[in-house]
From TrEMBL, chains A, B:
CDD domains: AAT_like, WHTH_GntR. Keywords: Aminotransferase, DNA-binding, Pyridoxal phosphate, Transcription, Transcription regulation, Transferase. GO terms for molecular function: DNA binding; DNA-binding transcription factor activity; pyridoxal phosphate binding; transaminase activity. It comes from the Bacteria. SUPFAM superfamilies: PLP-dependent transferases, Winged helix' DNA-binding domain. PANTHER family: HTH-TYPE TRANSCRIPTIONAL REGULATORY PROTEIN GABR, TRANSCRIPTIONAL REGULATORY PROTEIN. This is PLP-dependent aminotransferase family protein. Residues 1-69 form the HTH gntR-type domain. Pfam families: Aminotran_1_2 (PF00155), GntR (PF00392). In the C-terminal section; belongs to the class-I pyridoxal-phosphate-dependent aminotransferase family.
Length: 469, 469
């Protein structure tokens, strides 16, 4: 063990034992160097390592601070495998049995895919809805169906522009949520039997859509912090006739991984070299905890190869079912498929969102939402540290509302799911995130609901069940 | 020519020349028998024939009256062919080029698929939307996505009950318009390459959906008044491995044909014998002109073989994108496909419709709407009689908002479409309604917009173009 690693471990222990509390400043480099008799460069290296482990974070011109959830003694999971796996997909039954269990409103919703609706400005949205629908001309009710609400298209293009992506509203197709967008993108570029590169673990709906469209999955492993493994993807693209890649480049579901900007650029270069379209599912992008919004792979797209899908369901208006895709060279094809499938998302819902984006204070709401989610993440991580076995591993995502737990080998997460449900607690077991039903000792837990005594109690119960395996 | 046929023609002439005006009572049987020296039974037979031709209609205990549009000298088209045709479908490009032409709001919208939005209670709906969304609990915003709005489900089941169809709300799946419902139904019961029996002419979206899902169409001819040809269908079902039937049993698009109750019962017996599921597209059912609502094939369904699809888009709330399917034995499968495709239609739109159905006066609105459409049909038929060649044939549908014209042989309706568009008039040319691009001298015209001088002028221009072929 190198000197800086030893020093980093010492600081980590101070954090874990609560000597250095969450939010507290860690000693400055100068102070630490003098006090502990190590070189400033050793301190620097140690702090970089701790930052990398998610225990501390830098604030510009203020130094390093202990992160809110840093007292978690749980390590991050390793990347699961370095090999791509090709397989037919047959996971839907399992997913539906899990989803069916979430219907009971009295269940603690750790298994849910949605954050708490209380985090959203529903009353303000209702006002936007009432106002916009009162002022809607009869003509618009019909015309907004084929082309989408023009004001919403403008607002979306504006937000893309601010994030560094220049696109014409023509490239945007408004859809019935991101789920429809993803379905249409995949249909636009594949035929039954084709191979599609996806993540492992992947959002279970990805697997269901592949199954429905009779596509084969090439599972590419995802690093819990750095995202999809590019070497494996490059190898698969070279060896196999892959027709499309589908990935979440930021705050990946379920791991929360975000690729670095450099890595996103490399991913784009890779798909450009192979001229394989990329479906970029970016629905969590607005839920980052840092100061800088993550860039999308779309922002590097020169060839129109990237279909960038998102929605308002996770960040503003669940239930409104309005999403979109910036479809690049596939935009017209996607738009036609949409006209053949659902024609249009609800016109009043589009108008309400356009009004809200213009007048409702979306960015203010997002800042509040991000803070709430970051605090809740800290609470769940701390609670997991208290109640779960020490050998449990957990992700430290920099946004979103999911944690991915890797329990000790002997834990069967499907059994865990059943036992927990019997006690009124839901969770999303690992195997629903894999076409090959891997991740049998893993689970995704949702921290998107305000943390309270019931949450804490539920974590304690889960800890007991996990310990009983 | 029989005596009663000759007598019928004489009365028809009186109507056409305006001697007997629309709305006027025709001579009573006793009076006619005495005045014209024919037997009462000859008069009876003649009046039945005139009724059959759509020139007069009976009012209970009042006798026969001239129909509003009876001065139309145009005959009805014949059934096009008695043979089923099996074919790959490849009509989408043509359909999109026609639809694209409808975007200009200054075009006379005879080619549109929608009635005028001015015919709908948009302000009252807006009130229902504002009210229901204000009172919606945050929990409902999430829970209504998976299961549908419970009040809307109840209202729908109630309307089914009143129409004689008993079903549990469990059998109902709320969808993003009828278009999504039809897509999901077809996916639930077919795989790529399968044969599906459809109508000829058929709603063009039917053809597009088959094309998208790589299904093959078995085209069954439709009689312009009596609907699908059951003998041909029976023969096709006996000879071919047909996986599903898809038809509009009432007010078929584009012909406006409605099957008799007896024929619907026979259709059900047929599919039951072959155990082939029926997708019943019933979106125009509420737009009947008579006093009795048409029954659905679903009302005879004992085996859960019928998937009955409808929506509010044609009768109440275009642009809200809320439809549904009573899915019979396929309901759960359809519901799962929906969760994988769009998850849910807009939750606020569902709530608004539930509130409107309960408090808005839907049946009162429907009565008004039916009267408006019937009057507009009369206006278009009368105008066609004035401006189109006498050998033109036209349907006399008992509801909806489409007329189907069969022009003289030499008229190429795709050319007609281009020439009319250049003069600011849209129409839906016959070939987009057929997988085999038949109906080259036919067109569908929409009378769903209030009739005015511009409409009349547009018919005159169309007449000139038609005459120039």
């Amino acid at each position: 063990m190198k000197r800086y690693e030893k020093f980093a471990d010492e600081i980590a222990d101070l954090i874990r034992t609560g000597v250095l509390a969450p939010g507290e400043k860690v000693p400055s480099v100068r102070h630490a160097s003098r006090t502990y008799g190590v070189s400033p460069s050793t301190v620097f290296q140690a702090y970089y390592l701790l930052e990398d482990r998610g225990l501390i974070h830098a604030r510009p011109r203020s130094g390093y601070f202990v992160r809110e959830h840093a007292q978690s003694p749980l390590h991050e999971p390793e990347i699961s495998s370095r090999q791509a796996q090709t397989t037919e997909v047959d996971v839907s039954e399992l997913v539906f049995s899990v989803l069916g269990s979430l219907k009971d409103p009295n269940t603690v919703p750790f298994g849910s895919a949605f954050p708490s609706p209380h985090l959203f400005p529903l009353a303000r949205l209702a006002r936007s809805m009432a106002q916009s629908i009162r002022h809607m001309s009869p003509h618009e009710v019909i015309s907004d169906m084929t082309g989408g609400n023009p004001n919403l298209l403008r607002q979306l293009a504006l937000r893309y522009m601010v994030s560094g992506v220049m696109l014409s509203p023509d490239e945007l197709v408004i859809t019935s949520g991101a789920m429809e967008a993803l379905n249409l993108c995949l249909q636009a570029v594949t035929s039954p039997g084709d191979l599609v590169a996806i993540e492992a673990p992947a959002f279970y709906a990805t697997l269901q859509v592949l199954e429905r469209l009779k596509l084969k999955a090439v599972e590419i492993p995802v690093h819990p912090r750095e995202g999809i493994d590019l070497d494996t993807l490059a190898d698969s693209l070279a060896r196999l006739p892959i027709k499309a890649c589908w990935c979440m480049s930021s705050l990946q579901n379920p791991l929360g991984a975000s690729m670095s900007e450099e890595k996103k650029r490399a991913l784009y270069a890779l798909i450009q070299r192979h001229q394989v379209p990329l479906i970029e599912d970016d629905v969590y992008a607005e839920l980052y905890f840092g100061t800088q919004p993550p860039k999308s792979v779309k922002s590097f797209d020169r060839d129109g190869l990237v279909m960038h899908c998102s929605s308002f369901s996770k960040s503003l208006a669940p239930g409104y079912r309005v999403g979109w895709v910036a479809g690049g060279r596939y935009a017209e094809q996607i738009s036609r498929l949409k006209l053949m499938t659902t024609i249009s998302p609800s016109v009043p819902a589009q108008a309400a969102l356009a009004d809200y984006l213009q007048h409702g204070g979306y960015d203010r709401h997002l800042r509040k939402l991000r803070h709430a989610l970051e605090a809740q993440q800290g609470s769940m991580l701390a609670s997991a540290a208290r109640h779960f076995p020490a050998s449990t591993r957990v992700t430290h995502p920099t946004g979103g509302y999911f944690l991915w737990f890797e329990f000790p080998e002997q834990v069967d997460s499907l059994k865990l799911f059943q036992l927990a449900l019997a006690q009124g607690i839901s969770l999303a077991p690992g195997p629903i995130f894999s076409a090959t039903r891997r991740f049998g000792n893993c689970a995704r837990l949702n921290y998107g609901h305000p943390w309270d005594a019931q949450s804490e109690q539920a974590m304690a119960v889960l800890g007991q069940i996990i310990g009983s395996f």
